[in-house]
Amino acid sequence: MSDEAPPAEDSVDDLFGEVDTPPAPEPEVDPEEEFLEALWNASPGKSRNRSSKKEVKQEWRKIPKKDRPPFETVMESLLDWVRCPDWTKEGGKYATGLHRWIKACKWESSPDHTPEEAPKSFADQRKIAAEQSNACG
User: What are the boundaries of each domain within the chain?
Assistant: First the structure.
């Protein structure tokens, strides 16, 4: 008897050469899910603490699709509310839970602002946020 190991079986790569496996397809991004995630991230911490993502989705989905405003309208309004004195005073103590904000259709009304407190547009807010994140890194 010999101490040699039996010959190894040929692998698929040895028999057929390298096998090209196609990359997995990118999962489709649901625009509504992406919007709700952006809305969640744009809301202040106190507002998120008073809600859950599940509640936010449930309230949004209660609105008939034909009655839902454009995402941009909702986001710009939320950014307006985020900067209003009622939501910023005392560390955001009076910020509404995001699901309640949606339930009340608060994008249909604007908070009171003094001229120097007026928020910038959604596009300006995104630009400022990007600049701030680059400054931190």
Answer: 52-136
